[in-house]
Amino acid sequence: MTVEIIPFEQKYTTDFYNLNIEWLKSLFYVEPYDEMILKNCETHIIDQGGHIFFAKLNNDIVGTVALMKMEGTNNFELTKMAVSPAHRGFKIGQKLMHNVIHFAKTKQIPKLIIYSNRKLENAIYVYKKYGFVEIPLEENNHYERADIKMELAF
User: Fold this and answer.
1) How sure is the predictor about 122, in pLDDT bands with cuts at 50, 70 and 90?
2) Cβ of 26: how many Cβ atoms within 10 Å?
3) Does the pLDDT value for residue 1 go beyond 90?
4) Yes or no: is domain 3-153 CATH 3.40.50.2300?
5) For 149, how many CA atoms within 13 A lie in the half-sphere containing its CB?
6) What is the rounded average pLDDT of the residues 28-38?
7) Residues whose CB falls within 8 Å of the CB of residue 37, separated by 6 or more in sequence, listed in order
8) Is the four-CA dihedral 66, 84, 58, 105 of positive or negative sign?
């Protein structure tokens, strides 16, 4: 199984939306902020200097992750990471993570920030494995479900 990590192409916006909606609905619910970002990913991520990557297996998009520029800083939020249910357990999320960290280093991004939920034990394990550390979570962040904030400084 050879997974290729590819950059954003407009033709994959539906995949970006569907992959993220699936996991949000299965574990939480889709917050208004999620819906806004996912329905308009070009406007809210790409056009603002962010990046979206996809995991492609054969001709299918099986995973995705985004780097969303954080307002007023040179830091990026690592967000909207999802892998299709049929392809979980094959380390596709880790391949996406490895790729996005390498990309951030080459672009000299100072920090990556992740908002998550402690319920996502496997995801938090992966974040820690890649060097993310927990930092204080501000009260007025974008996500109601967020109960942990992590950063990776380069």
Assistant:
1) confident
2) 8
3) no
4) no
5) 14
6) 95
7) 44, 45, 68, 79, 80
8) positive
Tokens of 10: 């407009």
Tell me the per-residue pLDDT of 58-83, one tens digit each, with 9 for 90 and over.
999 999 999 999 999 999 999 999 99
Candidates 105, 34, 43; CA nearest to 76 is: 105
Distance of CA 14 to the CA centre of its chain: 16
Q: CB-based burial of residue 109 (10 Å sphere; 0-12 exposed, 13-18 middle, 19+ buried)?
A: buried
DSSP for 5-56, written as a single string: EEE--GGGHHHHHHHHHHHHHHHS---HHHHHHHHTHHHHTGGGT-EEEEEE
